[in-house]
Amino acid sequence: VEAILENTTEADDPDAGGMAVLIFSNDFDKIMAVINMAAATTSMGMPCHLYFTFWGTSFLRKKKMDNKGKLFLQKMFSWMLPKGPKELPISRMNFLGIGPRLMRLLMKQTKQPSMEDLWKILVDSGINVIMCTPTMDIMGIKKDEIIELPNLKFGGAATFINLAAKSKVSFVI
Amino acid sequence: MPIITVARVVKQGKKGDRFTILCKDPAFKSDMEAWSTSTGNRLISIDEKEGVFTAVIEKGK
């Protein structure tokens, strides 16, 4: 009986049965791994939820900053953290920022799709992106400093836990 | 990633349509098997010859 109940709720809920990832890190290589997994998930017809929190929020930032009304330390965060995928550091062999460029070059040479290409595929396939609101409060990130996405939501810890509990695969990176 | 392309192409077909896919990715066989089981499409055959995989898929639903 339990199994039947589980199946019926899963069939009714478009959010259930897929993958939920908590993206804590803003390292290029780690986010690349998540994006690859997400692309596979959507290709397999499963729902995919990406929850961007703390350093991970850098990925969703626009190039343009709006530092009006922010606290001093929030301005520091704003200046020093990467603004979007192009500025992400790499977790090993960063070489003061040259590492990610070398990795991008290597990916091009081995004919791998770039981070931007895969991200575009994900956005087009209707991936769910959730921005962590407590992080936005701490770092002073404003809503108009985040890129526009069709399925962008804002939420806290409970939002992620709810999605993770519904999903079959869930991890933190 | 081959399965992204495969998923895109197969999506455009109708139920019962067959697709022949050629791929050089060494992970193609295990990826295709996983992909077809989880999406409900049927993997009719998959063969390897000189590093090139040939897969035949029948669209399920």
Any chance you could write out the topology, listing elements then pairs?
The complex is a heterodimer of chains A (173) and B (61).
Chain A: H1 2-12, E1 19-23, H2 28-43, E2 48-52, H3 72-80, H4 98-109, H5 115-124, E3 128-132, H6 133-139, E4 152-155, H7 157-166, E5 169-172
Helix pairs in contact in A: 2-5
Chain B: H1 2-12, E1 18-23, H2 28-39, E2 42-49, E3 52-58
Antiparallel strand pairs in B: 1-3, 2-3
Percent of sequence in beta strands of chain B: 25-35%
* Helicity level of chain A: 40-55%
- Give the chain pair forming the largest contact, with residue counts: A-B, 11 and 11 residues
Q: What is the rounded Rg of chain A?
A: 17 Å
Biggest sheet strand line-up of chain B:
1-3-2
- Which radius of gyration of chain B do the C-alpha atoms yield? 11 Å
The string of secondary-structure elements of chain B, in order, is: HEHEE
- Low-pLDDT sequence parts of chain A: none
Average pLDDT metric of chain A: 92
Overview of this structure, please?
The complex is a heterodimer of chains A (173) and B (61). Helices cover 43% and strands 13% of the residues of chain A. Chain A has 173 residues and is α/β, with parallel strands linked by helices. In chain A, 31% of the residues are buried. Chain B is built from two helices and three strands, in the order αβαββ. In chain B, a hairpin with a 2-residue loop joins strand 2 (42-49) and strand 3 (52-58). The interface between A and B is small, with 11 and 11 residues.
